[in-house]
C-alpha cells in the first residue's frame, strides 16, 4: 500500500489567481469603451446638438430597436452558428400582428401575443431544421427561411400597409418612463438578463461549451440540440419584440420593413467581440458596441453627412477594431 | 406613461440666422431623386436659406424615421420628404410638427395627418390617363397591353395604375386589353425577367407601359435586344438620359416624365412659403411658385396638395436637349 | 571528414509564451537506424520533432543535416531536405481522396502540360499502399477510413516524399497489437533500405522491438542516449520519470458484488451484433479486439450517444433506455471517450470548467452557478487524479496528452455513477501517468464501481481485468475469466483461427 | 513472416465513396421534375428562345458562383461581391462614358483588375491579418458600396452614354449564343481544369479540408487564401462590367444583395460551408435551379406577392430533399454491407 502511494508525486492546484493589472486591462471591452468615448467626443465636436441629455437619450430610440436581437444573435454566434433570417422574422411577426388587429379585428393585446408567438415559431422552425438536418448548417437554413418568412409576409399583406393601432400602442416606440425612453429600459433589462444568463448560469455555460466543442459537449451530457433550439427560438422571440417596437414607432407596417437588419446586428455583435468562430463573446462588449455604432450613426446624421459616408466609416471601424488587436498580437510575436 | 419631454422648445422661431430647410428623399443614389435634390438645393440657396439634404441608403421608412429624428434634434424649420411609406412616417413627422417644424411631402405623399401640404409632381389622374392615350395611339386602339411596375407597394405607381384602369373603361379603348401588371421591384435583373416573361406568356402583346424609370429602361433594353422595335410599343415614365437610345431607335416612340429639377424647385418654393408663414396649407390658398407660376391648394383625400402641371412628353424631337440634363 | 550522423541537434531550446518546452536538447541520428525518443507526457518530444520539421523554430541551438548547418523556416523546407513526419494527431485531409492525401504538395505532373497526372498518382499510391501490405482504394475518401487505415496513408505519404529521415510521433497509439506488428514490419523495411527513423512511443514493446538506440527526455530536459541493449527496463523508467515505479499494475483485490450492468443481445446494423455481458459492482471487465471490432460503438450505444436496433440494457436488474448521454449519466453510467480532443474535452477551456462541465446542475441553484463550489470541486477532483498543472485555470490546451486524459477522468468522477465505460483510457499516455490511471481505475473498482475497461494493449488488459471480453467484427468472440490467460489466447480469439495459423506458419 | 491484411482494406467499395459520386443526383432530379411541372403549365417554357434567355440571364450567376465556391471551400465567405460588382461596373461605365472609343476588351480587363484589387484587400485582411472572412467582407461590403456612391456622386451612367461596342459585350452573340453564355462556359472549363488538374487548385481544397495539416505539409495557406479572394474579386469585377453592359445602365445600388443569391446557388449545389468540399457540377446545378426559378415564376403567372415565399420554400425543399436522399442512400449501402 505504501509503495503504491509513491507511484506519483502529490500536487496541489491553485484556485486563486494572483491579481494582475495586465489581465484587468488587456480586455476587449476597454478598447471598446475608448472607442465609445472617442465617438462621443467626436460627436460633440462636430455638432452642437449632440452631447446633451435629451439628444443622447432620444438618439438611443433611433437604433436600439434592432439592438434587442443582438443578444440572442451573440449566443447563436458563440455556438458557431448564424441566423440571417431575423430581419424577415421581424417583418413577418409585425405583419401578422397588424393583420390580426386590422383585418381580423382582434384586440391589440391578442395581436401582440400572436406577434410574439409568430417570432418564436419562426425561431423554432429554424432551430428544428438546424438540429434535424445537421448537414445543412445554420447559414443554409436561415438563408432559406429568410426568403420564406418575408415571402409569407408579402403573401399576407401584399402591397398594403396595415396600421391604425390604438393610441397606447405608440408607447412602445415613443414612450418614456420617468423621462427615460421605454425602449432604453427594455434594452437595459435585456442586457442584464442576457448577461446573467450567459455568464452566470448553467445555460450560458452550455452555450459556450457548444461553441467550443459540440461533440465533447454532447458527450458530457449537454442536450446540444435542445440548447440550440431554445437559442434560435429566443432569437425569433426577440425579433418579434423588435417588431413590436418598430411597428409602434412607425404606426403601421409593411412586408418590407427591417430589410438588412441581420447584417447590422451581426456587425454589432462582431464589433462587440463575439467571434463567429465560436466560443467567445461577452454581453458587456456587445452592449458597448451597440452604442458605438448607434451614436456614431446618430452623430454623423446630426451633421448631415451622406449615408454612404456612414457606410464607409462603419466598415472601416469594424475592420480596424478587429484588426488592431490582431496586428498587435503579430507585433508581439515578432 | 410619461409624456415625452421635448428636446427643444420650438423649431424655427427662436433661431436667428438663415432658416434651415431639409429634404429627405427615398434613398441615396437614385438618379431621379438626385435631380430633385439639386433643384431643391439651388432654389433654397437663392432664397437665402440653409439646405440639408438627407436620404437613407436603403429605401425604407425606418431609415427616414432615423433621419427625421436627427433633423428634429437639429431644430430645422421645414422638412420636405418623399415618403417611402405614407403612414409609417406619421409618428416621427407628428413629433416634428409638435415642435413647430413645418412638414411637406413631395413626389410620394405621406398621409394627411403628418404633413402640412403635399407637392404633387403632376396630377396622378393625368399621369394615368395620358399613358393610356399614348398607348392607344401607338397601337392603333387595339390589342393586348401590359404594365411593368416597380415594387408592388409603391403608392404613386399604384395610383397611376388605378387611373389607367379607369381610363381603359372608356368606350374608345374597348379593344385594348390590359393582360397583366408585372412587378420588377425596380431591380434591373428582375425587371428584365419580368419583361421576358410578358413577351413569352402573351405572344400577341402589342405594348408595355412602364410607369417607373428602372422598369422602362429594362424593358427598352429587352425589346432592343430581341429586335422588337416597331412590333411592341413601349411607353411610360422614364428618365430622358436612360431612354434616349430607345426613343431614337423607335422602341419607345415617346414617353413621359415631369422635370424632377422643377419638382425640387416647386418643393423649395412651397417649403419657403411655409417656413415664412406665408401659407399654412389651407384649402384655397394661393402659392407663388415664381417661374413655375401660381397654383392653388387643392384637396387630396383628407389633406391638401398643390400640383405642378402635366407630365412632359419626350420624343425624338426633344430628347437630345434633355438627355444631358437628367 | 565523413559524417556518421545524418541529423545532429545541438543545444536546442524552445520557449513558448510562459512555458519552456525544451531545454538544451542534444540528439544524434545515424543513417539507417531506428532511434526511439521517450519521455513522460509533456516532456517535449512532439515539440522537438516539430522543430526538426520546421513547424516551430528553436529559440536557441543549431541543427546539422549531414554535417551541414541548416535552419528551417517552414515545413516545406524540411520536406525538401528529405525530412518527413507522421504527426501525433493524424493530420489528414478528411474530404480528399487517399491519393491526394499522399501526394498533397508534391503532386506528380505531366512532363509537358504541367497538369496533375491523376492516373500516375493513383497508380503510385496503389503501389505504395501495396508495399505497405494494404490494398486500400486510392480513390476512397479519407474520412471513410478507420484510424489505422489513415495511419497507413500517413506512412505512405511520408515514404512518397522519398524522405531520408522519417519521424513517427506515437504512430502505434491508435493501433492494436496486430496492426502494430504490421507497422513494425514496414518500419524495419524502411530502415533496411537506409532510411533513418525517429520513433516516439509510450509503449516499451515498440522500443524493444524496433529501436537500436533510445533518447530520453524529462521535463523539457535532455537526460541521455543509450543503446537499447545496454539499458534495463528499470533504469529506463527511472530516466523517464525520475524515480522508480515498483509496480505498474496495482494489486487486484476483487470483491465483486451485485451485478450492476447487464447487456442483453445488443444489436446495431452494420456495427455489432448480439452483444451480451454483465459487470458486477467492484469488477473490472476488460474489452479488447482489433481496431474496428466495434468496441467504441458498443460503449457509445450503452451511453446513449448512438441508438441501437435491438437488445436490452439492465441496470441493477431494471431495464433502461438511454435516449442521450444525459439520461445515461442520470442512470449512473459514465463514459470516457476514446478521442479526448474531439469528444472528451473543450481544449480552449480551463481545467476547472472542463472538470465541472458534466456536473453543473449540482453546482448551481436555479441554474445560477456557484463559482466557489465550482472551484472547490475542480480542485478536489483535479488533485485526486494528480493533474500536473499550476492552477485550475490553466487551459487544457497547455497540458500534455496524459494530463489532458486525467482531466477527462476527473470530469467523469464528479458525477455519482455506478458504471464507468473507459474507452482506451491510456491511449498516448506515458508510463508514469499510466500507472496513475491504473491506480485510479483500481480505486474506482474498490469503491464499488462496475468498470468496463476497453483497451488494445494486451499487457494492460491482462494486468487490469477480472474478466476479458474479446470482440471480433462486432461479435463477442470470447469471454475469459482472467486466470492463466495469455496474449496468444486473446489474439487467437480476436483474429480467428485461420489467421493465427497463417501467422505461426 | 507474411500477414494477410484484408481486414484493413476496403475490399467492398466504401458506401460513402460510392455515394459521393452521385451527390448531385438529388438536385438534378429535383430540377428535372420542376421543369416538367413548369412546362405542363406553360408550354413556352422549354422553347429554344426561352432556354437561351434563361441561360443568358443565369450566366453571371454561374460565373460568380464559381468564385464563391472556391471561397467557401477554404471555409470562407464573401459578402462584398454585390458591392464590388457595383463599384467596378460604375468605374468602367464612367470610363466608357468619358471615352466612348475604348476597346470593350480593355473594359473587361479594367473591370476585372478593379475587382481583383478589391479582392486583394479582402485577401490581405483574411490571410495576413487573420480577420474572419464574414466580418472582413461584411465591413468591406459597406466600404465598397459607399465608395461606389462617392465616385458616382449620386449620378448614373445610362445607355446613350455607352458605346455600341460596349453594350455589345453582353448582348452580342457568337454562333447563335449570347456572349455571356460563352464567357460562363469558358469559365466553367477553366475552373474545372484549375480545380482538378493544377496543384494550386488542389491546395485550395486542402486548406479548406484541414488548415492545420495544410500548414504542416508546407502549403502556404496565406497565399492560397489571398489568391482565392483575389479570384473572387476579379470575377466580381468582370461581372460588374457584364452587368452594366447587359442592362446598359450603371447605378450606385447595382446588384445590392446579390451575394446572397450567389451563396444560395453554391449551397444548393452542395458546397459545404464548413469547407473542404464542393464540386463544379453541383454549383452549376445550383445556379441553374435559381435561374429556372427566376424565369419560371413570372412565366407561371405566379402572383408577385407569392414569388418570394415560393422561392424560399423551394430552396429549403431542395436542400432538405437532397439531405434526405443522401441519408437514404447511406442507409441502403449500410444494409448491403451488413447483409
Ligand atoms: N504551442 C504551444 N504553446 C504553448 N505551450 C506548448 C505548445 N506546444 C507545446 N507546449 C508545451 O510544451 C510542453 C511539451 O509538449 P510536447 O507536446 O512536446 O510533449 P510530448 O513530450 O510530445 O508529450 P506527449 O507524450 O503527451 O505527446 C508541454 O508542457 C506543452 O504544454
Ligand atoms: N476496415 C474497416 N472498413 C470500414 N470501416 C471501418 C473499418 N474498421 C473500422 N471501421 C469503422 O469503425 C467502426 C467500428 O469501429 P469502432 O471504433 O467501434 O471499433 P473499436 O473496436 O472501438 O475500434 P478502435 O480501436 O478504433 O476504437 C465501424 O462502424 C466502421 O465505420
Ligand atoms: Mg507528443
Ligand atoms: Mg474504439
Keywords:
heterotetramer, B: 326 residues, 7-stranded mixed sheet, 4-stranded parallel sheet, 21% strand, elongated, C: alpha/beta, 18 helices, disordered C terminus, binds adenosine-5'-triphosphate, binds magnesium ion
Written account of the structure:
Chain A: The chain crosses the membrane at residues 30-51, 63-79, 86-104, 110-131, 138-157, 177-198, 227-246, 258-276, 283-303, 309-328. Chain A: InterPro entries: ABC_transp_permease (IPR001851). The complex is a heterotetramer of chains A (334), B (326), C (505) and D (339). With 334 residues, chain A is mainly alpha-helical. Chain A has helices at residues 2-5, 21-25, 28-46, 53-67, 70-78, 86-102, 108-132, 137-157, 170-174, 182-200, 202-212, 214-219, 224-250, 261-271, 283-302, 307-333, and strands at 162-163, 176-177, 180-181, 252-253. Chain A has a domain at 62-259. Chain A is built from 16 helices and four strands. Chain A has a two-stranded antiparallel ribbon. A two-stranded antiparallel sheet of chain A has the order 2-3. In chain A, helix 6 (86-102) packs across helix 13 (224-250). The termini of chain A are far apart. The model of chain A is unreliable at 1-8 (pLDDT under 50). Chain B is of the alpha/beta class. Helices cover 39% and strands 21% of the residues of chain B. Chain B is built from ten helices and 15 strands. Chain B has helices spanning 31-47, 61-73, 90-98, 124-139, 155-168, 188-201, 213-225, 240-249, 260-276, 319-323, and strands at 20-24, 50-54, 78-81, 102-106, 117-120, 143-149, 176-183, 205-210, 233-236, 254-257, 286-288, 294-296, 298-300, 303-307, 312-315. In chain B, the strands form four sheets. Chain B has a seven-stranded mixed beta sheet with strand order 2-1-3-4-5-14-13, sandwiched between helices. In chain B, strands 7-6-8-9 form a four-stranded parallel beta sheet, sandwiched between helices. A two-stranded antiparallel ribbon of chain B has the order 10-15. In chain B, helix 3 links the parallel strand 3 and strand 4 (102-106). Chain B is elongated. Chain C has 505 residues and is an alpha/beta fold. Chain C starts with a strand and ends with a helix. The model of chain C is unreliable at 498-505 (pLDDT under 50). Chain C folds into three domains: 5-241, Rossmann fold (3-Layer(aba) Sandwich); 247-332 and 417-505, P-loop containing nucleotide triphosphate hydrolases (Rossmann fold, 3-Layer(aba) Sandwich), CATH 3.40.50.300; 350-415, no CATH class. Chain C has helices at 45-52, 75-80, 98-103, 118-131, 147-160, 177-192, 204-210, 233-241, 295-302, 325-330, 340-344, 351-356, 371-384, 401-413, 431-446, 458-464, 487-495, 497-504, and strands at 5-16, 19-30, 34-39, 60-65, 68-70, 83-86, 165-169, 196-200, 213-218, 221-227, 259-268, 272-280, 284-289, 310-315, 318-320, 333-336, 364-365, 368-369, 419-423, 450-454, 467-472, 475-481. In chain D, the strands form two sheets. Chain D has a two-stranded antiparallel ribbon with strand order 1-4. Chain D is globular, with a radius of gyration of 22 Å. Chain D has a single domain (58-311), classed as ABC transporter involved in vitamin B12 uptake, BtuC, CATH 1.10.3470. Chains in contact: A-B, A-C, A-D, B-D, C-D. The structure holds adenosine-5'-triphosphate (2 copies) and magnesium ion (2 copies). One magnesium ion is lined by residues 45-46, 88, 169 of chain C.
Amino acid at each position: 500500500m505504501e509503495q503504491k502511494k509513491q507511484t506519483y508525486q502529490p500536487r496541489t492546484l491553485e484556485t486563486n489567481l494572483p491579481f494582475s493589472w495586465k489581465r484587468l486591462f488587456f480586455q476587449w471591452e476597454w478598447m471598446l469603451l475608448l472607442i465609445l468615448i472617442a465617438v462621443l467626443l467626436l460627436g460633440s465636436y462636430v455638432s452642437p446638438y449632440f452631447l446633451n441629455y435629451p439628444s443622447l437619450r432620444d438618439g438611443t430610440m433611433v437604433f436600439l430597436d434592432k439592438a434587442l436581437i443582438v443578444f440572442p444573435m451573440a449566443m447563436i454566434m458563440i455556438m458557431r452558428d448564424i441566423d440571417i433570417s431575423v430581419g424577415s422574422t421581424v417583418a413577418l411577426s409585425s405583419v401578422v400582428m397588424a393583420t390580426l388587429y386590422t383585418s381580423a379585428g382582434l384586440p391589440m393585446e391578442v395581436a401582440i401575443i400572436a406577434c410574439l408567438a409568430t417570432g418564436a415559431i419562426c425561431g423554432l422552425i429554424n432551430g428544428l431544421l438546424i438540429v434535424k438536418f445537421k448537414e445543412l448548417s445554420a447559414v443554409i437554413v436561415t438563408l432559406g427561411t429568410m426568403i420564406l418568412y418575408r415571402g409569407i409576409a408579402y403573401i399576407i399583406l401584399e402591397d398594403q400597409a396595415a396600421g391604425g393601432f390604438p393610441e397606447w400602442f405608440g408607447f412602445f416606440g415613443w414612450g418614456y418612463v420617468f423621462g427615460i425612453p421605454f425602449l432604453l429600459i427594455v434594452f437595459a433589462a435585456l442586457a442584464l438578463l442576457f448577461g446573467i444568463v450567459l455568464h452566470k448560469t448553467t445555460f450560458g455555460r452550455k452555450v459556450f461549451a457548444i461553441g467550443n466543442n459540440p461533440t465533447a459537449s454532447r458527450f458530457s451530457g449537454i442536450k446540444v440540440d435542445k440548447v440550440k433550439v431554445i437559442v434560435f427560438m429566443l432569437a425569433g422571440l426577440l425579433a418579434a419584440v423588435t417588431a413590436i417596437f418598430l411597428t409602434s414607432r412607425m404606426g403601421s407596417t409593411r412586408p418590407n420593413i427591417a430589410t438588412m437588419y441581420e447584417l447590422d446586428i451581426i456587425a454589432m455583435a462582431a464589433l462587440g467581440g463575439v467571434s463567429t468562430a465560436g466560443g467567445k463573446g461577452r454581453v458587456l462588449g456587445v452592449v458597448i458596441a451597440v452604442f458605438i455604432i448607434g451614436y456614431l450613426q446618430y452623430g454623423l446624421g446630426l451633421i448631415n453627412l451622406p449615408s454612404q459616408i456612414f457606410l464607409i466609416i462603419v466598415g472601416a471601424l469594424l475592420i480596424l477594431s478587429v484588426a488592431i488587436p490582431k496586428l498587435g498580437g503579430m507585433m508581439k510575436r515578432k | 406613461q410619461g409624456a415625452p419631454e421635448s428636446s427643444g422648445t420650438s423649431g424655427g422661431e427662436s433661431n436667428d440666422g438663415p432658416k434651415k430647410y431639409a429634404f429627405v428623399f427615398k434613398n441615396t443614389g437614385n438618379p431621379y431623386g438626385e435631380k430633385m435634390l439639386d433643384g431643391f438645393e439651388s432654389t433654397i440657396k437663392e432664397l437665402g436659406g440653409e439646405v440639408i439634404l438627407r436620404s437613407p441608403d436603403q429605401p425604407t421608412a425606418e431609415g427616414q424615421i432615423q433621419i427625421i429624428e436627427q433633423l428634429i434634434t437639429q431644430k430645422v424649420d421645414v422638412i420636405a420628404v418623399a415618403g417611402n411609406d405614407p403612414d409609417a412616417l406619421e409618428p416621427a413627422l407628428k413629433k416634428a410638427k409638435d415642435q413647430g417644424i413645418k412638414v411637406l411631402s413631395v413626389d410620394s405623399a405621406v398621409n394627411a395627418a403628418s404633413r402640412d401640404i403635399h407637392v404633387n409632381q403632376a396630377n396622378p389622374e393625368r399621369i394615368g390617363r395620358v399613358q393610356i392615350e399614348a398607348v392607344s395611339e401607338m397601337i392603333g386602339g387595339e390589342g393586348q397591353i401590359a404594365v411593368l411596375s416597380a415594387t408592388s407597394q409603391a403608392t404613386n405607381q399604384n395610383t397611376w395604375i388605378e387611373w389607367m384602369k379607369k381610363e381603359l373603361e372608356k368606350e374608345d379603348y374597348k379593344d385594348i386589353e390590359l393582360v397583366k401588371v408585372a412587378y420588377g421591384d425596380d431591380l434591373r435583373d428582375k425587371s428584365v425577367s419580368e419583361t421576358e416573361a410578358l413577351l413569352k406568356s402573351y405572344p400577341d402583346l402589342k405594348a408595355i407601359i412602364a410607369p417607373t424609370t428602372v422598369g422602362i429602361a429594362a424593358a427598352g433594353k429587352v425589346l432592343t435586344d430581341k429586335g422588337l422595335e416597331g412590333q411592341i410599343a413601349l411607353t411610360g415614365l422614364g428618365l430622358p438620359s436612360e431612354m434616349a437610345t430607345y426613343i431614337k431607335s423607335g422602341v419607345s416612340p415617346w414617353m413621359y416624365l415631369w422635370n424632377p429639377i422643377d419638382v425640387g424647385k416647386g418643393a423649395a418654393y412651397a417649403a419657403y412659403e411655409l417656413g415664412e408663414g406665408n401659407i399654412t396649407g389651407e384649402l384655397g390658398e394661393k402659392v407663388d411658385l415664381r417661374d413655375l407660376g401660381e397654383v392653388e391648394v387643392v384637396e387630396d383625400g383628407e389633406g391638401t396638395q398643390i400640383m405642378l402641371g402635366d407630365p412632359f412628353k419626350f420624343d425624338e424631337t426633344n430628347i437630345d436637349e434633355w438627355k444631358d440634363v437628367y | 571528414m565523413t559524417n556518421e550522423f545524418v541529423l545532429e541537434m545541438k543545444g536546442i531550446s524552445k520557449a513558448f509564451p510562459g512555458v519552456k518546452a525544451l531545454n538544451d536538447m542534444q540528439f544524434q541520428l545515424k543513417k539507417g537506424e531506428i532511434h526511439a525518443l521517450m519521455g513522460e507526457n509533456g516532456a517535449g518530444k512532439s515539440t522537438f520533432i516539430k522543430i526538426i520539421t520546421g513547424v516551430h523554430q528553436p529559440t536557441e541551438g543549431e541543427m546539422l543535416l549531414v554535417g551541414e548547418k541548416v535552419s528551417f523556416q517552414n515545413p516545406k523546407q524540411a520536406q525538401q531536405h528529405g525530412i518527413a513526419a507522421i504527426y501525433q494527431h493524424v493530420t489528414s485531409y478528411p474530404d480528399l481522396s487517399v491519393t491526394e492525401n499522399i501526394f498533397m504538395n508534391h503532386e506528380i505532373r505531366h512532363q509537358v502540360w504541367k497538369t496533375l497526372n491523376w492516373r500516375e498518382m493513383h497508380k503510385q499510391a496503389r503501389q505504395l499502399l501495396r508495399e505497405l501490405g494494404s490494398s486500400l482504394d486510392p480513390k476512397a475518401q479519407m474520412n471513410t477510413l478507420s484510424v489505422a487505415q489513415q495511419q497507413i496513408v500517413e506512412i505512405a505519404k511520408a515514404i512518397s516524399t522519398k524522405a531520408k529521415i522519417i519521424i513517427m510521433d506515437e504512430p502505434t497509439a491508435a493501433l492494436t497489437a496486430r496492426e502494430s506488428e504490421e507497422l513494425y514490419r514496414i518500419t524495419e523495411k524502411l530502415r533496411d533500405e537506409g532510411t533513418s527513423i525517429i520513433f516516439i512511443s509510450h509503449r516499451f514493446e515498440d522500443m524493444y522491438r524496433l529501436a537500436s538506440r533510445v533518447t530520453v527526455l524529462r521535463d523539457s530536459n535532455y537526460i541521455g542516449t543509450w543503446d537499447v541493449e545496454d539499458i534495463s527496463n528499470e533504469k529506463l523508467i527511472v530516466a523517464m520519470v525520475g524515480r522508480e515505479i515498483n509496480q505498474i499494475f496495482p494489486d487486484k483485490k476483487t470483491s465483486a458484488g451485485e451485478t450492476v450492468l447487464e447487456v442483453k443481445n445488443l444489436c446495431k446494423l452494420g456495427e455489432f451484433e448480439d452483444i451480451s455481458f454483465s459487470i458486477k459492482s467492484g469488477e473490472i471487465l476488460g474489452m479488447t479486439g482489433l481496431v474496428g471490432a466495434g468496441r467504441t460503438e458498443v460503449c457509445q450505444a450503452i451511453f446513449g450517444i448512438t441508438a441501437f436496433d435491438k437488445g436490452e440494457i439492465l441496470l441493477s436488474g431494471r431495464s433502461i433506455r438511454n435516449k442521450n448521454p444525459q439520461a445515461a449519466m442520470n442512470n449512473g453510467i459514465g463514459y470516457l471517450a476514446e478521442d479526448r480532443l474531439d469528444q472528451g474535452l473543450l481544449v480552449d477551456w480551463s481545467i476547472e470548467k472542463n472538470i465541472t462541465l458534466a456536473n453543473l446542475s449540482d453546482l448551481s441553484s436555479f441554474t445560477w452557478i456557484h463559482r466557489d463550489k465550482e472551484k472547490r470541486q475542480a480542485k478536489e477532483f483535479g488533485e485526486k487524479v494528480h493533474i500536473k498543472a499550476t492552477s485550475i485555470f490553466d487551459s487544457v490546451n497547455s497540458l500534455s496528452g496524459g494530463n489532458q486524459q486525467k482531466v477527462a477522468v476527473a470530469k467523469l468522477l464528479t458525477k455519482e455513477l455506478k458504471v464507468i465505460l473507459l474507452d482506451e483510457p491510456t491511449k498516448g499516455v506515458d508510463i508514469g501517468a499510466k500507472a496513475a490511471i491504473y491506480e485510479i481505475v483500481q480505486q474506482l473498482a474498490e469503491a464499488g464501481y462496475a468498470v468496463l475497461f476497453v483497451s488494445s494493449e494486451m499487457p494492460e488488459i491482462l494486468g487490469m481485468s477480472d474478466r476479458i471480453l474479446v470482440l471480433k467484427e462486432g461479435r463477442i468472440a470470447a469471454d475469459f475469466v482472467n486466470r492463466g490467460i495469455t496474449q496468444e489466447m486473446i489474439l487467437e480469439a480476436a483474429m480467428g483461427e485461420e489467421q493465427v495459423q497463417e501467422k505461426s506458419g | 513472416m507474411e500477414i494477410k491484411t484484408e481486414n484493413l482494406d476496403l475490399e467492398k467499395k466504401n458506401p460513402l465513396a460510392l455515394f459521393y459520386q452521385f451527390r448531385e443526383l438529388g438536385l438534378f432530379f429535383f430540377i428535372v421534375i420542376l421543369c416538367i411541372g413548369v412546362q405542363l403549365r406553360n408550354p413556352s417554357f422549354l422553347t429554344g428562345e426561352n432556354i437561351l434567355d434563361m441561360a443568358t440571364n443565369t450566366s453571371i450567376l454561374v460565373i460568380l458562383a464559381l468564385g464563391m465556391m472556391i471561397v467557401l471551400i477554404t471555409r470562407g465567405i464573401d459578402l462584398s461581391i454585390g458591392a464590388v460588382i457595383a463599384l467596378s461596373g460604375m468605374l468602367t461605365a464612367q470610363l466608357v462614358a468619358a471615352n466612348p472609343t475604348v476597346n470593350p476588351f480593355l473594359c473587361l480587363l479594367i473591370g476585372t483588375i478593379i475587382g481583383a484589387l478589391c479582392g486583394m484587400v479582402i485577401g490581405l485582411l483574411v490571410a495576413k491579418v487573420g480577420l474572419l472572412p464574414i466580418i472582413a467582407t461584411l465591413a468591406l461590403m459597406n466600404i465598397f458600396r459607399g465608395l461606389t456612391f462617392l465616385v458616382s456622386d449620386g449620378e448614373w451612367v445610362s445607355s446613350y452614354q455607352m458605346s455600341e461596342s460596349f453594350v455589345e459585350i453582353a448582348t452580342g452573340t457568337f454562333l447563335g449564343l449570347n456572349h455571356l453564355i460563352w464567357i460562363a462556359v469558358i469559365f466553367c472549363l477553366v475552373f474545372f481544369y484549375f480545380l482538378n488538374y493544377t496543384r494550386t487548385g488542389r491546395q485550395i481544397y486542402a486548406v479548406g479540408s484541414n488548415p492545420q495539416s495544410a500548414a504542416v505539409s508546407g502549403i502556404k495557406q496565406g497565399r492560397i487564401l489571398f489568391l482565392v479572394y483575389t479570384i473572387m474579386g476579379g470575377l466580381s469585377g468582370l461581372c460588374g462590367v457584364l452587368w452594366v453592359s447587359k442592362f446598359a445602365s450603371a447605378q450606385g445600388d447595382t446588384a445590392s444583395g446579390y451575394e446572397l443569391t450567389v451563396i444560395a446557388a453554391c449551397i444548393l449545389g452542395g458546397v459545404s460551408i464548413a469547407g473542404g468540399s464542393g464540386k463544379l457540377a453541383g454549383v452549376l446545378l445550383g445556379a441553374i435551379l435559381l435561374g429556372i426559378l427566376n424565369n419560371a415564376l413570372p412565366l407561371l403567372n405566379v402572383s408577385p406577392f407569392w414569388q418570394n415565399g415560393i422561392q424560399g420554400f423551394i430552396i429549403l425543399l431542395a436542400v432538405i430533399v437532397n439531405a434526405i436522399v443522401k441519408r437514404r442512400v447511406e442507409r441502403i449501402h449500410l444494409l448491403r454491407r451488413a447483409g
